[in-house]
Amino acid sequence: MIFLLLHLFNWLKYQMVYYILGAFAIIDDLQNRENNKFEIEKKRGKVAVITGGARGIGLEVVKKLLSCEMHVIIGCRNVKVGESVLQQLALSNMSFEVYSLDLKSFSSVKNFAQRVLSKYSCIDVLVNNAGVMFVPYEICENGFEAHWTVNYLSHFLLIKLLQPVLKQKVKNGNNARIVNVTSCAYKVSPPIDFNKLNDKDSYLSYAAYAKSKLAQLIMTKYLSKILEDSHIRVIAVHPGIVDTEIFNGTFLKLAFPWILKHLCKSSEEGSRTIAYACVSNTLDCSDYYTNCQPALCIPYADNVDVQEKLYSTSIKFVKKYL
Ligand SMILES: NC(=O)c1ccc[n+]([C@@H]2O[C@H](COP(=O)([O-])OP(=O)(O)OC[C@H]3O[C@@H](n4cnc5c(N)ncnc54)[C@H](OP(=O)(O)O)[C@@H]3O)[C@@H](O)[C@H]2O)c1
Predict the structure, then answer these.
(1) Which domains does the chain have, with CATH numbers?
(2) Relative to the CA of 77, which ligand 1 atom is closest?
């Protein structure tokens, strides 16, 4: 009984905290509308890989990368749907491929990476964009909870698998870039308890989403340090609060759809900072951006012990697929 009451209390607490965080984030986006600008810079001949590029914010990022004249490889679950969405874009000289990728499965991540590696010896940009939010408790085929698997661990595996061809860029004196699409929701995550990553009894989808986004941010910061000598820039981006299908089924979308429609960013606006992190020539040395500007993070994300623990644990989890 006490456990149930505690669970209910936690659920209410997260509801409130998310609404407060969301309200502040929307205000921040509105105040920074003028700064959220992205200039198309031509990157002809460069290659980008993006997860979840067939709809939502990811599709708008793809459009921008194509406008930069990059070749774009899109990973999504339904290749036919992805190809037909891309073919309908009225852009001239589009150069793209759509490969199958289900981030719920490490084998699928490995197959996707192998297809990329078999064709390309050099990748300029990897955008880890795909994500799920507030989904019911599910253990995916490799034994980890769905938010943790899709948003964080599979992307970690993809980075490790593609790292050799991202490193390749050193030769040309250019920095390759890994852009991780996180969320300001990381701010409300509990500290990561590595012994309870899959705990069903205490599962709250709000906490699980926040925790996966915190892990993405912590890993960005850690990889940013250890890959510095390889000239790979690793950047995390909060795209803003964006009216996409990720809010389907949430109380916000059901009760106050006008907030999303009129106060939040469109997918195009949400894609700007991500595209900026991918191609801008004027990036400073920050590792976290929002509204095309560097942003501050909570100190927990900079904790070296936590970063090292997350890295070593993640390597252990995906080792079989490396
Ligand atoms: N919208 C916001 O306010 C907001 C705020 C902060 C951060 N973000 C982040 O922005 C990113 C994009 O979200 P969105 O708002 O554009 O959401 P969305 O419209 O729901 O799109 C989600 C994308 O993730 C892909 N995806 C989901 N599960 C997948 C799986 N198992 N395997 C492969 N791909 C999968 C989907 O691909 P399919 O086509 O295969 O379904 C789709 O492209 C997410 O990482 C999200 O956390 C969004």
Answers:
(1) 2-321 (3.40.50.720)
(2) 40
